[in-house]
Every structure is written in C-alpha cells, then in structure tokens.
Amino acid sequence: MSNENNLAFKAANLLQQFTDYVGGAKIEIIKEIPEAMGLGGGSSDAAATLIALNQLWDLNLSGKDLHYLASNLGADVPYFLHGGTTLGAEIGHNLKALKPLRNKWLVLVCPITSIENKTQRLYKALTYELFSNGDNTMDLAKSIEGNSLDNRLMINSFEQIAFGIFSGLDIIKDDMIQCGAYSVHLSGTGPSLFTLVSKKEHGIKLRDQLNQKGHKAYLLETIDVSPILTPDLPRL
Questions:
Q1: Which intervals hold domain GHMP kinase C-terminal (predicted)?
Q2: Rg (CA), the chain
Q3: From CA 214, how far away is CA 12, in angstroms rounded?
Q4: Beta bridge partners of residue 194, listed in sequence order
Q5: Which spans in the chain are helix H?
Q6: Is the backbone of residue 188 left (phi > 0), alpha (psi -120 to 50) or beta?
Q7: Are 51 and 65 in contact (CB under 8 A)?
Q8: pTM attached to this predicted model
Q9: Which residues are CB-neighbours of 53 under 8 A, at least 6 positions away?
Q10: Measured on CA atoms in the order 152, 149, 138, 232, is the torsion positive or negative?
Q11: Which domains does the chain have, with CATH numbers?
C-alpha cells in the first residue's frame, strides 16, 4: 500500500511513530464494504490495521493505547476496535457497550452516486437547528437495553440535508417504501439507506424487488462482537 491518504496507511504510520517501531508491513486491502457510502469502510480498515500490526509486530499495546491511536485517526475508528452494539458520546469516540442486537435483519441500498469531499460537505451543511440534546439517542439506547429496537428513535440529523445533496436519493427511498419498507434511514453521512425487516424472508423479498428496479440492495444480519476485537468497554 502506498496511498498516504488511505486510513489504513495512516494507522500503520501512526503506530510506528507511537512505538518507534522500525520495521514495516505489506498491507493489501480487499474492499468488501462499498466505499464512501456512510458505512465506515475506511474506519474499519484503520481499526483492523491497528489490531493486526499490534499482533504482527509484537507491540503488546493495551486496548487503551489502541483506543487513543484510533481516536487520532477519526471519530468512528475507535468503535471498530470494539464492535458490537455501542453508544458513542461526545464526537463518537467515548464508547459504552449496550446489549447485543443479535440476529436482526436489514436491507441496505447503496446508491450509484458520489460527491467530492462528501463527509466534509455534509458536516459543513449542518446547522445549529439540526443538533439535538441527545435525548432521542439515550432513549434509543434504553430501548436496546430493554431488548427492543424502536424505529421512531433512529434519528440521523444528516437525513435532513442528504436528500438535497445526493441526486436521486429521494427516489430510492420512495422505491424502498413502495416495495414494503416500513421505515427508511440514512446510514452515517450517506448516501446508503437501510430499513429493518422483521424476518429474513421479508428481507429477501424486499432485496430482490429493489434489485429488479435497478438498485444495489443487500440483505444483512447483525452480529455480535468479533473475538479478535477488544470489547473492554464500560456498560451503559
């Protein structure tokens, strides 16, 4: 890997600087998560790089040290060190573990669209009125702790600006609803959209209908924390 703008490269470089390690590594990334879709693909690459090189280089850094390094790479990189169902506070790096949301099914649609400097542009478009006091987020966390997931509490401030920035996003949302989606949400800064489904069979049907309409739809299942991660987080 030679792209210095790649987060995995930055993670490796930061780890070398932090530990004074003089060796190196050849890193090959096979992208399975669509890029620039609001799915955290680059951030998860960076977190995986920190975990892998910590082991490969026998650095024996603690989870706390890795979390510190991850926080310097991006607000959501620390999450991918831990995974699972997690509440992120402040800019997202202050994490608390929630009860796992296992075996939930959802349909994800990745639009064939992109804009330059997407994340920067969407954050710049946020206005004071779009910020909340966090009550909805805490209510959602409590809902998850109570073994339920209330769609009405899944609020993303970027939804109010993304549909004016990404061309055709409103059409995709309408198609999802017409095909049977109960509630459609923006993933991160977008442009990916997702909807929860009650059963796998419903998800298969919805995915197939959306693909027939020319969209790139995927059926996904939530998972628990991976054993290779560092799930040493305080509970809510």
A1: 158-215
A2: 19
A3: 39
A4: 108, 185
A5: 7-19, 41-56, 63-73, 77-82, 118-125, 135-145, 159-165, 169-178, 200-212
A6: left
A7: no
A8: 0.87
A9: 11, 12, 15, 25, 59
A10: negative
A11: 7-97 (3.30.230.10), 105-221 (3.30.70.890)
Contact 108, 38 (CB under 8 A): no
| Cβ atoms of 24 and 2 closer than 8 Å | no
CA distance linking residue 57 with residue 130, whole number of Å? 44
pLDDT in tens, the chain (236 residues): 457 778 999 999 999 999 999 999 999 998 888 888 999 999 999 999 999 999 999 999 988 899 999 999 998 899 998 888 889 888 777 888 888 888 889 999 999 887 888 888 888 988 888 888 888 889 999 988 888 887 788 889 999 899 989 989 999 999 999 999 989 999 999 999 999 999 999 999 999 999 999 999 999 998 877 656 665 665 55
One DSSP character per residue, 2-69 reads --TTSHHHHHHHHHHHHHT------------SPTTSSS-HHHHHHHHHHHHHHHHTT----HHHHHHH
Residue 184: its pLDDT value, please?
A: 96
Q: Which residue matches tokens 């991850």?
A: 70
**Rounded to whole angstroms, how far apart are CA atoms 51 and 49?**
5
